[in-house]
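Appendix B. Chain record.
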Amino acid sequence: MEISAQPAPPRQWRTATLVACGIVAFQVIVLVIVVKGVASTDSPASSKATSHHKVGRAEPKRPTLPRTRTRILVLNGNGITGAAAAESDRLLARGYKVSGTGNTAQSYGQGVVLYRPGKLPEAKRLAADEGIPLVCLLDCITLRQLHGAHLVIVLGN
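Structure tokens predicted for this chain:
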């Protein structure tokens, strides 16, 4: 017995494969563009607007040290005799520990709170407690000169 059937039509698999590859390639290109866009917003250049000085690790959001464990060096930068001692007494009354007092070599027009890396929240808390508007990273004094202090207050006029 002989069966005569029509030949099967050729499959269009090549066209379907090319269309599928084109769609996948387009999706990969879109993914690369999106990833590059996200990566460029996390670059140090864009974080410059949010962070004044970037250290190897991120600053904590809240103070990690209570006032009773935060050590402060008080420096008189206004030339008024006894100003550092008076500020030291105020800090002790608030519960801070004072690691020392002294005078600066030059006069300061405005007070400033200086902080060691990692102590920005403590510095902001101290500045708020004492009404000092300037808070800056401490990078020009050695740890030995700090006498164990975490923060430094420089009193201004």
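Further analysis of this model is presented in Appendix C.
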